[in-house]
Amino acid sequence: MSRLSATGQSGSKPQREAERVIRRISEPRPWQYDYLMLREIAAGLKRQAAALNGKAGLEILDVGCKYKPYQKFFAARASRYVGLDLDPYLGVEVRGDALALPFRSNVFDLVLCTQAFYRMVDFRKVLSEFVRVTRAGGTIILTTIGIWPYPPPDRLHRWSRRELEEVLSEFGDVRVEESGGYLQLVPQLANAVLALGVEGHMVKQHPHLGRVLAFPLKGIYLGVNALGLASEKLIRAASASGWGLAQSLCEVDTQLAINYLAVVTPKK
Asked: Out of 3.40.50.2300, 3.90.1170.40, 3.30.450.20, 3.40.50.150, which CATH number does the structure's domain 13-182+257-266 have?
């Protein structure tokens, strides 16, 4: 049973909000403005869960978890799944800082950190903590932003593939892959402008009416997402056929991604 369903708040407003966020992130729909990005992140994490090759009884730590949207991907493998966050979101078992994880060394088989690593100011200290609490033979899985134009007021770190590989290799054997590449950036930017600008403004000014008036934008998001997927498929097919420009675009796609997924086998 998940922590959310065990809180005794089933049907409450916090419970419904947590479930909404989990569905939105782990099961994105084509009419969401950030569908192209979220679908790639979810697909990558599903592949990593499948790559555990039948392993079970794993102790898993989810750092910066918020509502633990990806827990269900790993639930069949876990004997214990611990969510850690600075804030007391519904379902968080442990409040703590990634700079000083409140756990003994060599406790977890898998450390997961999704879409939080780019907020870590002292990321080398954070990585050393991840390695410390991971058992020998264990795994660290990270997802983090690359060139996605995320606009929070606080500091964040936009990674390139090369920089991410160089930093993570200091802590173990690493494999990095793009998780929503450059080929999807233009449609994602178009949707983001509408969502964060037009829709966001309407909802802020008129919370209830704004949501109604903004509803037709979902049709635009859907169309832009479909166009983005079709364009990427066409460019990749042209690249496979040996068309030079398409091959160059695919190479850029690999090096300048919206997001990256990294798998680290720590040095112990």
From this structure: 3.40.50.150
Angle at 91 between CA 126 and CA 57, to 5 degrees: 70
Closest residue by Cα to residue 107 from 45, 158, 63: 63
Q: What is the pLDDT of residue 223?
A: 96
Is the pTM value of this prediction over 0.85?
Answer: yes
> What ranges do the domains of the chain cover?
13-182+257-266, 184-255
| Helices marked H in 66-206 | 71-74, 123-133, 161-168, 185-192, 200-205
Exposure string over 134-167, b if 16+ CB within 10 A, otherwise e? bbeebbbbbbbbbbbeeeeeeebeebebeebeee
Please state the rounded mean pLDDT for residues 57-68: 96
Query: Residue 122 is encoded by which pair of tokens?
Result: 């002292």
Name the band, by pLDDT with cuts 50, 70 and 90, for residue 124: very high
State the Cα–Cα distance between residues 77 and 52, nearest whole angstrom.
8
Alpha carbons within 13 angstroms on the beta-carbon side of residue 165 total 9
Nearest CA to 48 out of 113, 101, 124, 4 is that of 113
Which pair of tokens denotes residue 150?
């995320």
Distance, in Å, from the CA atom of 262 to the CA atom of 264, rounded to the nearest integer, reads 7
